[in-house]
Structures are given as structure tokens and as C-alpha cells.
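Case 329 in the screening queue. Each case pairs one protein sequence with one candidate compound; here the compound is heme C. For every case the pipeline is the same: read the inputs, emit a complex structure as C-alpha cells, and attach any notable structural observations.

Predict complex for case 329.
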Amino acid sequence: MRHKHLKTRYKNFTWSLFIILFMISEISGCKGFGHLTHIDMTYPKASFCEDCHIDIYNEWVNSPHAKAFTSNTFRMATHNYSFTDCLGCHAPEPTFSATQFESRNIFREEGVTCTSCHLEESKMVGPVKPTGMLAPHPVNVDDDRYRNSQFCGRCHEGTFKEWSDVKAENKHTCQECHMPPVKRKMTQSKKFISKMIVAMEDESVQKKHTFGIYMELPDIAPFHVTVNREGELFKLVLENNIPHALPTGDFGIRIVTVDILAVQTNNEIIRIKRFELIKALHTAIPPKGSANWTFSLSNTVKAVRCVISRSRVNSDKREDLYQTEVPII
Ligand code: HEC
Ligand code: HEC
Ligand code: HEC
Ligand code: HEC
Ligand code: HEC
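Case 329 output:
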């Protein structure tokens, strides 16, 4: 009983402290958090944001955007950073603007960082209406801009052009396929004051900052595979339902590999063919287009398996994208 009473007292004390802190920060114009939106030699670094946006930070730091400057391929392609024209998209200035491509001259190793996409006129701009009592930095809500493919198209110029040329109803945006949804609070924190600030929010559907390939859209399968008999031969057709080329991208060499395998009646697997789709070699499949390959099969084959994976030139890393098996009748 006494213990419970003490607990309530403690809770009340925390609340009073919080309210006092809130008032101080209001009166002082929130000077305590000014470094988050003020650009100077300390620069609003991503690690500042990590204090309260732990989940987003952890996703971003492992994403290609965080490596846009330090990537070995980029370093080599710019002759050890001597081509400064390239930095407007790989280490952009800490403000989001639809037209300028200015590069920043400090903390370039953060690549495409939080403030490159969110800071504008000393405010953090984002798509979601805040639900908490206060944000330590001013917030501006602009969901039209943040949920629009044009936002990504500022840097992903070629891919955005491909996407724009696709005429389809209910076409998905870049964000819908490359930033998977997750239900959580906008902020998380381990630090004492930050913890109190972020405690009062509601959970809502937010978007992960992984910027990778997300294959689980409820209403669309990115690829469709069919196998048909054509006389003595068989024809496999691969349809690309993505509203951009497979693979896409303006820079570097990305390779999408299509493996066609035969599943025997004794369950043994035999490789029939391997094809590489490479944009620079004009073998990429256009958006909403298809490619087909013809081959022969022995009569001990019960199904054809198609495995799609992607990799880059100078890298042994391979990522599986899709796999399907079509029975042969
Ligand atoms: C390449 C641009 C880009 C970078 C870099 C980026 N964001 Fe975002 N962020 C977005 C977009 C776009 C959305 C909105 C996605 C949507 O709702 O479709 C968003 C949403 C958010 C939201 C709203 C909640 C949510 O998850 O939807 C917060 C908060 C946020 N970002 C913080 C950060 C922080 C902190 C960092 C750095 C660790 C960061 N962002 C890096 C583009 C970016
Ligand atoms: C001391 C804690 C704290 C720090 C540090 C912090 N934020 Fe926030 N941020 C918040 C809170 C709290 C909100 C509002 C959440 C709510 O009320 O739902 C917020 C909201 C946002 C939003 C608005 C998203 C939207 O869609 O409305 C963006 C964008 C954002 N922060 C980006 C950043 C970036 C970038 C940094 C680093 C430069 C940063 N924040 C540092 C606590 C913090
Ligand atoms: C400020 C410029 C900029 C903006 C805005 C931007 N990107 Fe990027 N993005 C890059 C750069 C540069 C890379 C290459 C990083 C690397 O691989 O070294 C990249 C890489 C990627 C990749 C990985 C490509 C691969 O080969 O794996 C994806 C996916 C991606 N971005 C999606 C998005 C989406 C979705 C948006 C919009 C929410 C977006 N980007 C906005 C500059 C940007
Ligand atoms: C319907 C889902 C979908 C939409 C919409 C979408 N993408 Fe993709 N994206 C994918 C899939 C699946 C892949 C992997 C296959 C590939 O490489 O093309 C991919 C690959 C990529 C890659 C990496 C290329 C590679 O092959 O490694 C980049 C960069 C990219 N997308 C950017 C974008 C941008 C920018 C937009 C918006 C203009 C966008 N995507 C819209 C699903 C989508
Ligand atoms: C308009 C924005 C923009 C500019 C300017 C730009 N890039 Fe990129 N770069 C991107 C984007 C977006 C990606 C990732 C997707 C793609 O390839 O389209 C990328 C990816 C790359 C990659 C692949 C990185 C990796 O890790 O695989 C290399 C290499 C590269 N760029 C080199 C350069 C060079 C060299 C220049 C200057 C001549 C340059 N970029 C200028 C936007 C840009």
C-alpha cells in the first residue's frame, strides 16, 4: 500500500518535472534542442536523431542511403571523390529542395542522411500528424510530398522517368514498395528527458527506412511466370509487374539473374538455363513488359522452377527476389 503510494508520488513528481521542463523549453524557445534544426559545424548529424528515433535510425544506418558516399563503388567511380558534381545526390545538403543539387562539405560520410530528406526552413517535415504533446523540434506536416514518387525521383531520375511513363490505375509509389509498413510510435528513446518527451505518443502505421526490396504487397505480385508447351519445346514467360525496369538504375551495374531449373519425377533438380538481365546490355525487362525463353525438357520432368535473384558487378553478394514452381502437364 505504502509502496504504491510512493510510486504515485514518484509519478506525480516526474510529471511536475516534465511540465517544468516543458515550460522552460517553451520560454527559452527550445534552445536545448536547437542543434537539431540549426546547420553549423556540428551539423544536425543522424546520431542526434538516434536519441529519439531509434528504430528509424537503425534501419537507415544499414540502408544503401547511409552508404551513398562511403560505398567503394562510388569512391572508385569518382576517382576518390575528385568529381564534386556527383555529390549533390550522394551527400546532399541538409535541406530538402525539389530543384537544387547542392552538396554539403561536412560529414559527407553520412551520405543521404536524415536532414537531407527532412529539414526545411528550420523545421522537420514529414507525412504523419504528430500525436504526442510536444516535439523538441518544430514539425511541419506535408503528406502529399512525402508519399509521392516525385520525392524519390529528385535523385532517382531514370527510374522515376520509367515509373512516370507507366499508365496504370492504382500504380504503387516508390515508398509503398521500398519502405515497408510497421505499426509503432514515431519515437523511441533510452535517455531520461527524451524518454518523457516521447512517452505520450500513439502507435500508428509508419514506414521502415530500409530502402530495400519489399516483396509482400497485398495486392500485387511483382513477377508472374508461366510455362507453355510449344510443339516439342517449352516456353517460359516472365512478366515484370513492377512499374520500372527489371533491373532499374542509372549508375553502377546491377544484375538480375533468372535461373530455370527442372524438377525431375525423382525430385532431382537439374539446371536448364541461366540468364542475366543487365540494363547496360539492353537485356532489362521494361516496366510491365515480359521476356521469354524456349528450351526442351525430357519426359521425366514434373515441374519447372524459376528463381530470380540480384547481385552487382564486383560483388559476391546475391539476394533472392522470387521463386516459383510451375507443374508440367
Ligand atoms: C531518402 C530520404 C529519407 C531519408 C534519408 C530519411 N527519411 Fe524519414 N521519411 C522519408 C519518407 C519518404 C517518409 C514518408 C514515408 C511514407 O509515409 O510513405 C519518411 C518518414 C519519416 C518519419 C515519419 C514516421 C514514419 O516512419 O513514417 C520520421 C519520424 C522520419 N522519417 C525520420 C527520419 C530520420 C530520423 C532519419 C534518419 C535516421 C530519416 N527519416 C531518413 C524519407 C527519408
Ligand atoms: C529529443 C527527442 C527528439 C530528437 C533528438 C529528434 N526528434 Fe524528431 N520528433 C520527436 C518527437 C517527439 C516528434 C513528434 C512525434 C509525435 O508527436 O507523434 C518528432 C517528429 C519528427 C518528424 C515528423 C514526422 C512527421 O511525419 O510528422 C520528423 C521528420 C523528425 N522528427 C525528424 C527528426 C530528425 C531528422 C532528427 C535529427 C536531426 C530528429 N527528428 C531528432 C523527437 C525527437
Ligand atoms: C538525395 C537523393 C536521394 C533521394 C531523395 C532518394 N534516394 Fe534512394 N538512393 C540515392 C543514392 C545516391 C543511392 C545509391 C546508394 C549506394 O548504393 O551507394 C540510393 C539507393 C537507393 C536504393 C537501393 C538501390 C540498390 O541498388 O539496392 C533504393 C531501393 C532507393 N534508393 C530507394 C529510394 C526511395 C524509395 C526514395 C524515396 C522515398 C529514395 N530512394 C530517395 C539517392 C537518393
Ligand atoms: C510494385 C513495387 C515497386 C514499385 C512501385 C517500385 N519499385 Fe523499385 N523495385 C521493386 C522490386 C521488386 C525491385 C527488385 C527487382 C529489380 O531489381 O528491379 C526493385 C528495385 C529497385 C532498385 C534497385 C535496382 C536493382 O535492380 O537492384 C531501385 C533503385 C528502385 N527499385 C527504385 C525505385 C523507385 C525510385 C521507385 C519509384 C519511382 C520504385 N523503385 C518503385 C519494386 C518496386
Ligand atoms: C541526380 C542524382 C545523382 C547524381 C548527380 C549522381 N548520382 Fe550516382 N546514384 C544516384 C542514385 C539514385 C543511385 C542508385 C540507383 C541508381 O543507380 O539509379 C546512384 C548510384 C551510384 C552508384 C552505384 C553505387 C553502388 O554502391 O553500387 C555509383 C557508382 C554512382 N552512383 C556514381 C556516380 C557518379 C560517378 C556520379 C557523378 C558523375 C554520380 N553518381 C552522380 C543518384 C545520382
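Case 329 observations:
- The pocket of heme C (ligand 3) is lined by residues 64-65, 67-68, 71, 74, 89-90, 92, 112, 116-117, 151-152, 154-156, 174-175, 178, 211, 249, 254 (CB under 6 Å).
- Confidence is low (pLDDT under 50) at residues 26-31.
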